[in-house]
Write a structure and sequence with these properties.
With 230 residues, this protein is α+β, with helices and mostly antiparallel strands. It folds into two domains: 109 residues, Jelly Rolls (Sandwich), CATH 2.60.120; 99 residues, Homeodomain-like (Arc Repressor Mutant, subunit A). The protein contains ten helices and eight strands. The strands form two sheets. Strands 1-7-2-5-8 form a five-stranded antiparallel β-sheet, with no helix packed on it. It has a three-stranded antiparallel β-sheet with strand order 4-3-6, with no helix packed on it. The chain starts with a strand and ends in a 9-residue tail after the last helix. The model has no long low-confidence stretch (mean pLDDT 87).
């Protein structure tokens, strides 16, 4: 989760579902088809191309793991709204209340949807997800994971997307970006963080960061006062 001010982004699409919240006012979303929408909160699925204009307001952006129970239970809402759910959050009666919900990651309070339980994540997909999350390890290739789970590469990719709502390739990029961000908690150097995330170099990291967030790493990460790993 990031909380504070952000510049206007370029075109990008997230590799994981994102919850955007305007803490001090409305923000604007622009889509590839020319639509523009102004709102206080939005829940955007992975793969949806858009620009994000905070309009100078304080914002919070929370990226949700695709295999999380809440994310999987709420995925049907994405399908019913074309990948973007506007105003999904409650309107808290005060900034302090909203801050508390965000800092506690109280998604049930933030997103009061009536959702049904879902089956556990397929064990073969869970194996692949856990392999991608191992810190300090080289990012495994899809073919190796497919072989380890006794699936063809195409079948593993199909199953992964069906269970996670995002392709293996996109989630692999997200895992690398997340790994680099976590590395910043112990080392403020962007180049070292990029290597910790499994990127070839800082240029590769910057390119994928812009594709994921629509911003350069330095514009977001250098001004940070604190990076906390939870």
């Amino acid at each position: 989760m990031y909380q504070g001010e952000l510049p206007v982004t370029g075109w990008h699409s997230h590799c994981a579902p994102a919850l955007l919240v305007g803490l001090s006012g409305r923000f604007v979303l622009r889509y590839a088809d020319g639509r523009t929408e102004s709102c206080y909160s939005a829940w955007i699925d992975s793969g949806v191309a858009h620009e994000f204009d905070p309009c100078g307001e304080q914002v919070a952006t929370m990226y949700l793991e695709p295999d999380g129970g809440e994310t999987r239970r709420w995925r049907a809402h994405f399908a019913n709204h074309g990948g973007v759910v506007l105003e999904p959050c409650i309107r808290a009666q005060g900034r302090s209340t909203m801050d508390a919900y965000l800092r506690q990651f109280d998604l049930d309070a933030l997103l009061p949807f009536d959702c049904h339980d879902v089956a556990p994540l397929d064990a073969r997909v869970a194996y692949g997800v856990n392999a991608l999350r191992r810190p300090g390890m080289e990012m495994p290739r899809r073919g190796l994971l497919a072989q380890a789970t006794d699936l063809s590469e195409s079948r593993f990719n199909h199953l992964f997307r069906a269970e996670m709502g995002v392709s293996f390739r996109s989630y692999r990029v997200w895992s690398q970006v997340r790994g680099a961000l976590c590395a910043l908690a112990s080392d403020s150097r962007l180049t070292q963080a990029a290597l910790e995330g499994g990127f070839v170099d800082s240029s590769h990291f910057s390119h994928m960061f812009r594709k994921t967030f629509g911003l350069t790493p330095s514009s977001v990460l250098r001004p940070l006062r604190e990076v906390t790993l939870v």
